[in-house]
Predict the 3D structure of the following.
Amino acid sequence: MKLSDLRVGSRFYSVFLMIFLGSFILSSIGCEPLRKKFVRQKKKDENAQQFIPVLDPIDYPAAVYSAEEGYRKHYSLWRVWHKELMVSLDEQGIDRRQKYLVGQLVTQLSEMSKFVTEEKQKGLKDLSDTLFEVQEELEKPSGMRNMYSIKRKIEQSDKKMLNEFNPKVLENDFIQ
């Protein structure tokens, strides 16, 4: 190593050190003193300063539906759940989903029975009993089930709903 190599390296080192120290000093100088720049301060809460008005609650009356409207609503829900169940059975879907869909069919039938006369309630009860049988069949292990029987019972319940419990057919059988 030559003496001239050390001078060039030390000159480069000293220039670099001066530039670094100069940039550090310039960046640390500002509106605040150095010790205040690095002290963590609490954030100012803008929401606390805003005024939040107190609103008077409005009491809305309960929605009043006729028996026919309520029946139509649950009948259309029953149709949707039935279609989903048939698709699930055709595609050999998940067992838990099929059990859930049958449970929804039973729920809609019980809600529909609230809006019709006692004579029609008995028919809806028969349909829900058929669906309970399907539920029991679905509780069996998949190898022990008769899917043809399950599908046939559900299709029969659909035909009975269309023929006997369609809202158009039940015009005079709603509770007043």
The CA atoms of residues 83 and 90 lie 11 Å apart. The chain has two domains: 3-49, 67-164. Residues 3-49 form one domain. The mean pLDDT is 83.
